[in-house]
Amino acid sequence: MPRTMLLFDIDGTLVDTGGSGLRVLHDTAAELFDGQLSFEGIDTAGRLDPSLFAEAARKSGFDPGPSDHDRLRDAYIEALDRVLASVDTQLRSLPGTLDLMAELAQLVADRNGDAPVLGCLTGNYGGAARVKLRAAGFDPGLFTVSVFGDEAPTRPGLTEIALQRYEAEHCHAPDPARVVVIGDTPHDIDCAHAHGCVALAVATGRFDRQQLTEAGADIVADDLSDASVVLDLIR
């Protein structure tokens, strides 16, 4: 029988960086490209990191060279690691998330064959995702199915990759009704429903309960401080 798979978004769902991510990206781009590339005014909620670069380049009138995206990505991840490790970082885990992940880790350890599969589905670059998780106190290794923003051109494409990785690891296809995408934006809801998965939305980002309900979320919670919101889906 297919196991339940929980796919967690990061920003606004597990972690609040206090805007550090975008500031570091903007400052890194300004330094790397002598102020020619600006991320001012770019909406990041639920977006994929490479798409932010493309939009910033278009709005800035910046014509990137073939290696410019990769140069910025690598410099950004390095700078983000430094900033989030500093004593004055604004990064924090969101309510209940560390306790929830501890409970899920224990379930994985105790239940063996029918344990939930924990995954990360995020628009972040892989390196940035791991930096943010570690800085907020999460173990990135707990997420055995992880898909990052530079692995597909769209967010529904990330979900498709997650389903494929589940099948490759477990030698059977997942049941979409037992795959839960947990996020804080309508983009997370859309990428769940694009593949028949369950969308659990949390109002810990820019969108409130009403907006997430209107966007079609199957379940809406104020935050993840009540672990039963997630645990009831795998019992």
UniProtKB/TrEMBL annotation:
It holds the Pfam family Hydrolase_like. InterPro entries: HAD-like_hydrolase_sf, HAD-like_sf, HAD_sf, PGP-like_dom2. Its EC number is 3.1.3.18. It comes from the Bacteria. The keyword Hydrolase applies. It catalyses: 2-phosphoglycolate + H2O = glycolate + phosphate. Keywords: Hydrolase. One of its GO terms (biological process) is DNA repair. One of its GO terms (molecular function) is phosphoglycolate phosphatase activity. Pathway: Organic acid metabolism; glycolate biosynthesis; glycolate from 2-phosphoglycolate: step 1/1. Belongs to the HAD-like hydrolase superfamily. CbbY/CbbZ/Gph/YieH family. This is phosphoglycolate phosphatase. The lineage of its organism: Bacteria, Pseudomonadati, Planctomycetota, Phycisphaerae, Phycisphaerales.
